[in-house]
Fold this sequence. Notes:
This protein is α/β, with parallel strands linked by helices. The protein folds into three domains: 4-39; 57-103; 122-338, Nucleotidyltransferase, domain 5, CATH 3.30.420.10. Helices cover 42% and strands 11% of the residues. The longest helix is centred in the C-terminal third of the chain and has 22 residues, at 230-251. It is globular and about 80 Å long. The chain starts with a helix and ends with a helix.
Amino acid sequence: MVLAESAMEIRILKRQGLSVREIARRTGVSRNTVKRYLKSTEDPGYTARPAVEGKLDAHKVFLSERMAAADPDRVPGIVLLSELRLRGYTGGITILREHLASLRPVAVPDLVVRFETEPGRQMQVDWAVMRRGADPLSVFVAVLGHSRMAYVQFVTDERLETLIACHEAAFAFFGGTPHEVLYDNMRTVVIGRDAYGPGKHRLQPGFRDFAHHHGFLPRLCRPYRAQTKGKVERFIRYLRHSFWVPLDSRLRPLGVKVDAATANIEGRKWLRDTANVRLHGTTGRAPAELLAEELERLLPLAGPWQGDVPRSAPVVSIRQPLETITIQHPLSVYEALLAAQAVR
């Protein structure tokens, strides 16, 4: 059965110029299935499949206890197979070995190989919380995988509506839409990781429709592997130490709390004059210079998404549940304070 997410991927890959044969190869479905969903405008429904107990399920507790008892040594799979036969196990050694491998800790590699993407292929996205409490502040960060061109937008919540607005602002800032966007486990993007099998995730319906409108494929990084989206992770650390801490530390002693409007004004200047024109440590070139290569491969900008956010869409708030009053200052106050600090 083709899921709604798979049908969306089929249509997006077609819009990106791929042939029916190539789409079938990438998605793992037949060419006739690809043709059927390219002709249809409706998404397939979700059908919950009843759980089927595997041959090994009744013995998994026993295996965990045997592995723990032997630690740090290992009991060979062939030995455990003999023991399981006495317990009534009728399966083979292949599924036994796969299960035993899942019980062993994964070795952490000493060397992390950087994953590079061709121009226009990927954008990495993440949230970073700058301030919690009664007056919260988060920042949306998007980084193009090839050029490292970055976009940031400070906001007061992480709602689905806010996430969508930030995406559209980032696409406009870059001058086009990437073919795919990489996320972690954002609840506003995915509501069921591996819901239909390994790598087959259930996306938030409103966000799925938004991605289809703009023609990009949402991708999820591997769990607990920050280096999968290491470009945006590293940029967030750079943003925090090179922009946020200097700005906040200049204004906080004066009794002024940085709001979203001020952070965005100063952030645009920082992107223009510092972050996107510096020589990047990995590429050896300025992101703004490499952006020219990305622009040739980015998808054309689509119009604003006109869809509705479902009422059941999750709300991710960084605000503590307290009744608060936010005190805002005119922008001229911040500008004057920043100017005064700069001449000291």
